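Operator note (shift B, R.M.): manual run for DUF4194 domain-containing protein requested after the automated queue skipped it. Running by hand, logging everything below so the morning shift can see what happened. Input copied straight from the record, untouched. If output looks odd, do not overwrite the archive copy; leave it for review.
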Amino acid sequence: METPDFYPVNISKPLIALMKGVVFREKDPSLWQDLEEGQIAVREYVRVLGLELVLDESEGYAWLKTMEPVEGQEPLPRIVGRRKLSYPVSLIIALLRKKLAENDAAGQDPRLILSVDEIADMVRIFFASGSNEAKFLDRIESHLNKIAELGFIRRLKGHRDKIEVIRIIKAFVDAQWLHEFDERLKEYQKKNENENED
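Run finished. Output pasted below as returned.
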């Protein structure tokens, strides 16, 4: 099948990659270049499907999100599904996002690398005390594996206990989401403290 003249030939691969998930510049520089060069055509193509291209050139990632329906129009069926996250996974994602914001504000290394123990210490206060430490760390590892599947973190090669927070987390977890989650965290922490006092 021939590609229509109005589409650059090189948008097929970026489109397929975007339909599968997030595209990172550092993972595939030639695919990223095709995406940058053909981004106008990509935007027009995905708009027909009710999708919008989010491309952050400074951070080096791109993904597709569902467009908000125009007032008065019936929304299209979702192509990009929503994922329901468990409370612990949401909690860790929110804490990692806050840690990245603190790291950026301090003007430190743009790469945020944390150990599994550091992450466990960050979330420990939100879980009931007295639980088995080995079991607790196993649960944290399981939650981190889920977050890695979502593309928000990656384990460093040769250092299984070191986690790098991927900067795309900023696009998915905005200030409004963090504020709302902060309010829920305060409620949860208060409830947890009350249960421990009983």
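Quick read of the result: Residues 175-197 form the longest helix (23 residues). The two ends are 70 Å apart (CA to CA).
Leaving this for review. - R.M.
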